[in-house]
Structure formats: structure tokens, C-alpha cells
Design a protein that fits this description.
Layout (H helix, E strand, L loop, with lengths): L5 E4 L9 H15 L8 H7 L5 H11 L4 H24 L9 H10 L3 E5 L4 H12 L5 E3 L12 H10 L6 E5 L2 H9 L3 E5 L14 E3 L5 H18 L1
Parallel strand pairs: 1-2, 1-4, 2-3, 4-5, 5-6
Helix pairs in contact: 1-4, 3-4, 4-6
Bound molecules: magnesium ion (MG).
The site of magnesium ion has 7 residues, from loops.
């Protein structure tokens, strides 16, 4: 067994319940602000989540609702900054809460001297205030989609975290909620623990080392307990 030196977290859907009550709301507000009739309800948004990245998601939607491809892309690129601004406001208003078990897991890892990092394809403008509001300054290295535009399932954002921290993949574990996230982490040769949510329960997460119902699932809690206890034993 190799010592657990770092845990690298995804943000959306993993550390926080941000999709349904955050991003979805921000996309709809951006559509309304631009005078567009488009609205995404909870189920429709669940389907659209298969497409990673806000601009891609909007482009796909505008095309599938009959806009010509070039117009769809232009519209999506124009709306994305508004969506980011609205998302940032939701974050600053405290609308996005940590998932159950997130704070406890972070506390436990910190107590054991495990470094905490973030690998997200979200935009830094809302990711930073979100992490600060929800968790304080607990993360060492935060790499976002602003620095690494390759979307998951590309491993690029994980590889960037590993490169910046100098951590070997066998000494780190990724925590993800979705199929694209698990694929990104495992392509970077990381072990990945999946904490599903309502939107990702139907995803194929079979590449993950463990698939749990959430960060407060006793199976996930005991998986980390076992790892940390093992490391402590080796140190003695
Ligand atoms: Mg996610």
C-alpha cells in the first residue's frame, strides 16, 4: 500500500450541489436576460449534463432547437459570460451549499495531514469564491477550466494538478460524481472514488475504485478511515 498524500476533488456535484440550483438557474437567468424563450427544467437539465462545459452545452441545445450551427455557437459564446456573472452572484449570496459529508471528510483529511487540491473544468470567477465561502482556505492547489480549457473526460486538468504539486498519482485519490469525471481521473492514472448524486446515479462509474451514494455514505467514510488508519500504522 502507498501512503495517501493528497486528495483531488471535483467541484460541481461532488463538493457542492451546484448543478440543479446553481448552474441550471444561472443558465435560465442568462437566457431570460438575453430575451430568449429557452428554459431548462430539472429533468431536461439532467439530460444536458451529459455534455461537459457550459458553452458546449448551450451550443448543443441551440442547435437541437433549430438554430443554425454557426448562430448556435455564437449565441452560446455571447451568453457564457452572463451565465458566469449570474453564477458568481448565486455563489456570493450563499445559494450553493456543501454536499452532506463534504466538510467532515475535508476536516478528517486535514487532521491526517493529507493535502487537498481541486481539479475542475468550472470557471475560476465562480469556483474561487464558492470554495472560500463553503470551505474556507483549505485547498492548496486549485486548477480550473480558466487555466486548462480541455474538458473532462480529458485528464488534462488532473495532470496539471499533479504537475504543479509534484505528487505521484499512486499517492493521490480523486473524488468525482460523474462518468466524465471518473474517466478524466483514471486517465491520469489516479484511483477515483465516486460519490454519486441524483443526476449521476445512472452514469457508468465502473472505472472508479469505489462507487458510493454520497460523501456521507458509510462505505465511503469507512474507505477513507481504513486508508488513513493504515498510513498511521505504517508511520509508527
Ligand atoms: Mg462533477
Amino acid at each position: 500500500m502507498t501512503r495517501l498524500e493528497a486528495v483531488i476533488f471535483d467541484v460541481d456535484g461532488t463538493l457542492v450541489d451546484s448543478e440543479r440550483d446553481g448552474h441550471r438557474v444561472a443558465f435560465n437567468a442568462a437566457f431570460a436576460e438575453a430575451g430568449l424563450p429557452d428554459r431548462w427544467d430539472v429533468d431536461c437539465y439532467g439530460q444536458l449534463l451529459k455534455i461537459a462545459g457550459g458553452t458546449h452545452r448551450m451550443t448543443y441545445w441551440f442547435e437541437s432547437t433549430g438554430r443554425p450551427p454557426a448562430h448556435a455557437r455564437e449565441l452560446a459564446e455571447r451568453l457564457h459570460p452572463s451565465k458566469t456573472r449570474i453564477m458568481r452572484r448565486l455563489v456570493e449570496d450563499g445559494q450553493i451549499r456543501p454536499r452532506p459529508g463534504a466538510r467532515q471528510l475535508i476536516e478528517q483529511l486535514t487532521e491526517h495531514g493529507v493535502a487537498l487540491h481541486v481539479a475542475t473544468t468550472g470557471t475560476r470567477a465562480w469556483v474561487e469564491p464558492l470554495l472560500r465561502n463553503a470551505f474556507g482556505d483549505v485547498f492548496d492547489t486549485v486548477v480550473t477550466g480558466t487555466e486548462v480549457p480541455d474538458l473532462k473526460p480529458s485528464p488534462a486538468v488532473y495532470l496539471e494538478v499533479l504537475a504543479r504539486t509534484g505528487c505521484a498519482p499512486e499517492h493521490a485519490v480523486a473524488v468525482e460524481d460523474s462518468a466524465n469525471g471518473v474517466l478524466a481521473a483514471t486517465a491520469a492514472r489516479l484511483r477515483c472514488v465516486a460519490a454519486q448524486n441524483a443526476y449521476t446515479r445512472s452514469h457508468d462509474l465502473s472505472a472508479a475504485t469505489l462507487v458510493a451514494d454520497g460523501l456521507d455514505d458509510p462505505e465511503l467514510v469507512s474507505w477513507f478511515d481504513t486508508r488513513l488508519a493504515e498510513d498511521q500504522r505504517l508511520e509508527r
